[in-house]
Description:
The protein is an all-alpha fold. It is about 75% helix and about 5% strand. The protein contains 4 helices and 2 strands. It has a two-stranded antiparallel sheet.
Amino acid sequence: MHTHRSRPHVNLRVERWHRRCIYASFAALLLSGAAWLLARYFFRPVGQFGETINPLEPWSMKLHGAAAMVMLFFLGSLMNAHIRRALKAARNLRTGWSMIAAMLALTASGFGLYYLAGESDRPVWSSVHWVVGLAAAVLFVLHVLLGRRAVRHP
């Protein structure tokens, strides 16, 4: 006779206030990064001496840096309440580990852009950062949706 041992239910749901702070900081990161991309690559004004910096570029970058600090705080706050429990419960691991990898890559490439990149390699650092950032936005939505679906259909 086969015995079926079900795992005890582990609540991985993040509290509403916490979830809203994470969503807001993620949205601020995505929107400020997208604003910089658009201003940098599509909305550069042409002056008497060629292209000039769009005034939105430095402001979007400052907001992006501030949002990154807030997001890092909230990512750290997820370590015990959400990530550790999810690992123990073995739930939503593919997108969870992918989110962790994406956040590490974004943190490293953001650090690299700010502190390490020179003029010659800045485009490479920047491309890696914004490609991973846009992918992380899709991954984040997927992670949340799969997590919610797993709760409804254990």
